[in-house]
Design a protein that fits this description.
Elements lengths: L2 H4 L9 H16 L6 E4 L14 E6 L17 E7 L4 E6 L11 H13 L4 E10 L8 E10 L20 H10 L4 E7 L8 H10 L3 E3 L3 H9 L3 E11 L10 H25 L1
Parallel strand pairs: 1-4, 1-5, 5-9, 6-7, 7-8
Antiparallel strand pairs: 2-3, 3-4, 5-8, 6-9
Catalytic activity: a purine 2'-deoxy-D-ribonucleoside + phosphate = a purine nucleobase + 2-deoxy-alpha-D-ribose 1-phosphate
Pfam families: PNP_UDP_1
Protein name: Purine nucleoside phosphorylase
């Protein structure tokens, strides 16, 4: 098998965990760090927040690491960074983008960053996203902790008969820690749709009936893969807009980016404090 074939996550013969190990080896070589302690996935609206976590000690283009691709969405960075977590001596692996399910590269590609983080030594993962809010009191720019999710993609990253308990998938310990950092943080249930089209008002009403508070196009598949890999998971959504039908205004990606810029300082400080304490 050629190197290219070995890194093709769409090939059924490829072992996705072996590709993650190969990616982690490149990260160790390029960063000079034997291990990283915590990983962050920066979703839409969260790009600037990573700058406040700590000093960037090394940067790597995604395309230089096995199994990773360049950023496909405006507002995401196609670079991963090795960041010093304050003066703790710990390292954070910060992903400036993710592969979304709607890109059509398969679930393995969606969760490859998570599996690579585990292979690089991380014990915890912070997943962020930009999303639509179903509660009128959550204005654009409001960060919300994810307490649970509803996966409407009809897919799972787990292959074969591996039965993974998701009862407390979104760590109660890390959520409590985040609320110590910012007592105003609320919690909600995140609903992942496939995308890339935004949800219809009827679909948003359905999500609300099912128990959802937030709607978006990422996160749940990554969180499941993280649990399978033994990572402790903290999920944080940034409400970038009211979901379809909640507000009379049309939805746009520009609105998502603008809300992220407006909330960058608050979200960055929240992430920085949580990561130092996690």
């Amino acid at each position: 098998m050629t190197d290219a074939a070995a890194h093709d996550l769409t090939d059924p013969a490829t072992d996705p965990f072996a590709v993650a190990e190969a990616a982690a080896a490149v990260i160790r070589e390029r960063t000079g760090a034997d291990r990283h302690d915590i990983a962050l996935v920066l979703g839409s609206g969260w790009g600037q927040a990573g700058d406040l976590v700590g000093e960037t000690l090394a940067s790597i283009e995604n395309t230089d690491v096995p199994g990773f691709a360049k950023a496909a969405v405006e507002g995401h960075s196609g670079t991963m960074r090795s960041v010093a977590v304050g003066d703790t001596g710990r390292r954070a692996l910060v992903y400036g983008t993710r592969t979304h399910f709607y890109e059509g590269r398969g679930v393995r590609s969606v969760v490859h960053g998570v599996r690579t983080a585990a292979a690089a030594g991380c014990s915890s993962l912070v997943i962020t996203n930009g999303c639509g809010g179903l509660r009128p009191e959550w204005a654009p720019g409001t960060p919300v902790l994810i307490s649970d999710h509803i996966n409407l993609t009809a897919h799972s990253p787990i292959e074969g008969a591996h039965f993974v308990d998701l009862t407390d998938l979104y760590s109660p310990r890390l959520r409590a820690l985040a609320q110590e950092v910012d007592p105003t943080l609320d919690e909600g249930v995140y609903v992942q749709f496939r995308g890339p089209h935004y949800e219809t008002p009827a679909e948003v009403r359905m999500a609300k009936v099912l128990g959802g508070d937030l709607v978006g196009m990422s996160t749940s598949l990554e969180a499941i893969a993280a649990r399978q890999a033994g990572l402790e998971v903290l999920g944080i959504s940034l409400v970038t807009n009211a979901a379809a039908g909640i507000s009379p205004d049309p939805l746009s990606h520009e609105e998502v980016l603008a809300a992220g810029r407006a909330a960058a300082d608050r979200c960055g400080r929240l992430l920085a404090d949580v990561v130092r304490l996690a």
